Amino acid sequence: MNNRSIDNYVSDLTRILEQTLSSQYAEEIAAETKNHLCERATELRESGRNFADAESTAIEEFGELRDLSIELAKGYPPKTAVEPRRLRFLPEIAVIVLLFISSYSYTVYGGWRGIETAAGLLLTSMPILMVPGMVAGLGRLKYRRLHPVATLFRLSTYGLVLCLISAACLVGIQVAGKGTLVSVFPIYYAFASATLVMYSLMRISFTNGKVYSFLRSHIGIHIRDK
Known about the structure:
By secondary structure, the chain is an all-alpha fold. It contains 9 helices and no strands.
């Protein structure tokens, strides 16, 4: 009979899971496993087993750690080279760098031309801020248990805000007749549209499939009605 306690069993499980999954998911799986083990041990104690025997039996029923870890890890994304927690300040750093570059371009030209150049630079850069969040969101189609990565979500939100501000500046310049590169404005607006589409895809994918399921059910109803 296995003499390990539930705490030791869960600790070993966490260590094995962290070899293939991020610490966040390993801890999440381990916590859920511990809850089920404790529930099973409680049932065994209520049936007349002593504390140690109940825990040992519950652990034996769950099986070997290696086999259990492989089964539990299914549906979770593999471990990445860099822990997401280490990138928590990435959005702020990216925004500061972009604002610094756009501010420099404004100081070079000054006036309306400077605003136009800075806004155009920001707009063409915004899809770059959207790509990581969109890719992480679309990853939910494969990994249903993948949680929204707060860092990437924040990065995309900053990008959306800068996109709207930049687009508003360009529209204002165009309406006021102060634009010097009016022929390039459609390209800027195309980048703004691409940014909005990418942000929308990210938001839809972060709704746990609710929006997708809603649209699919309504499309299905529409087809059946025809």
